[in-house]
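Same chain as my last thread, 223 residues:
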Amino acid sequence: MASCQPSSLSEDLSPHLSSSGLIEDEEIPGPSAPWVEPNPLPESPGWKRDWLTALEEEITAEAEDIWVVESLCGLKMKLKKQRVSSVLPEHHEVFNRLLEDPVVKKFLAWDKNLRLSDKYLLSMVIAYFSRAGLFSWQYQRIHFFIALYLASDMEEDNQAPKQAIFSFLYGKNRAQRPLFHKLRFQFIRSMGWKTRVSREECEEIQAYDPEHWVWGRDRTLIP
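reply #2:
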């Protein structure tokens, strides 16, 4: 009798926040600087054991999947893995509040081809909010655009369109761009470097309020 077998399958970093809700006072490499691993492996004899222990603890912390009964037939029971989402209603509320920001509204109206703000990229914004660990009131316009910029980094091959974000945030003032990248780095670190969002997660986020107008921003429907 064939048996079903389940497939095999962070450091808590909180941003330093000012009273305005922005993250500040961290030194980071500039946009063109080479990436440096934040926690290089030690070279002591026991480094491998320590690294494996840390990895095991991280996997345990991230193992939020649960097994649920999918079907029951006689004595046979079929299980399926169900992921427990970390996205809470408050993260959807933050997202909806920022959609009312006048600059965000102008940006979404401008992006008619949905190169930067289709439904999946916007779902990732909510996912990142759930991982960053800020209080709801601390999320501001800058966090929306940082999350959207990061989503574009992760999913889009053409990186040129995301430069338009700077025009909406700063106009022609290029002096603020280094600060944006500094905040972006800190935002990623506050998420424990977890920047990948699966399609399944995006669809779960959309299913929370499937009639929301923003999920109608489907790039595949554009002629």
